[in-house]
Amino acid sequence: MRTRVFWIVHILTLVGVALWAALDLRFESLAFWPSSSSENILESMQTNVYESGLIRTIGFACVLLLALITIAVPCVRLFRFHHGSRARSIASLLAITTVTALWCGIVINHSALAWQGKRARIAIQVSELEHLAAPLRNQWPARDGNLPGVGPFMAYPFGRPTTLILLQSPSVAGDELCIAAVEGNETGPIRMQLSGSAHDDWAEWHPDSSRPQSFVGGLGDPHQLVSATQLGRGWYLVRYTIPDVLNRHTNNLELAANG
Known about the structure:
49% of the residues lie in helices and 20% in strands. By secondary structure, the chain is an alpha+beta fold. The chain is elongated and about 80 Å long. A hairpin with a 3-residue loop joins strand 1 and strand 2 (151-156). The termini are far apart. It has 7 helices and 9 strands, in the order H-H-H-H-H-H-E-E-E-E-E-E-E-E-E-H. Strands 1-2-3-4-5-6-9-8-7 form a 9-stranded antiparallel β-sheet, sandwiched between helices. It folds into 2 domains: 3-120; 126-257, no CATH class.
C-alpha cells in the first residue's frame, strides 16, 4: 500500500479525534489516564470506562490503534529504506514532526476543545434557556411544584428554597446534555446544573450587576469557580470544582430526589 494512503488515513484520524473532543461530552472522561500516584489505577480505569461507556471506550482504543499504525508505517519506511530522494526524506521528516506536534496539541488542549464545543452547543440554545428561566425570574417557587418546560421539582431547603431538584430533567442541546438542578432566587442569578459530563458545569443567567462566582448551594454543597465564558443575553457557561465533597453532594441529591 502506498505511503500516501497511510498519511491520508492518519490525517483523517487526527481530525476525527479533534472533532470528537469538541463534540462528545464524555470525551474528557474517556481521555483521562490515572497518574502513577493513584491508589488504585485499575479502579480508576474501570470508573472511566463506566462513565464513558464500553462502546465509546472500545471505539477510542480502535481509533488510537489506527492512528498508531498509520503513522508507524511511514516512519518505518522512512528510516528503513533509503530509495527516495533526499528532498523527499526531509519532507517526510517535516510531516512526521508536524503530525506529532498536532497530536501533542490535542492531548494538551483536549479539555479546551471540549469546553469550546460545549460552549457552542449551549450558545445556540440561549432562547430555550430563557424560556426555562423566565418563570423562575418572575416568581421563584416557595414549595414543591411543576413549571412549564421544567416539569415537576422539589424545592430545598424548606421555607426559603434556593435549590430545585428536577424530577424530569429537561434536555438542552441533545439528550446527553440535561438540566439536573436549578439554583437561584427572585433577585439573583439563575443557575442551571448541566448533567451529561464528568464536570460540574452550569448554564447561568446573571443580571447586569452580577457575574459568575463561587457559591454554596441550597444543599450545603460548595462550588468553587474554575472558569466562565459568556454566551450572550446575560448567560454564561460556568465550570466549578467541588473540593472533597463531590460524593456527599451526589448523595444529597439522591436522598432529596427519593424524598
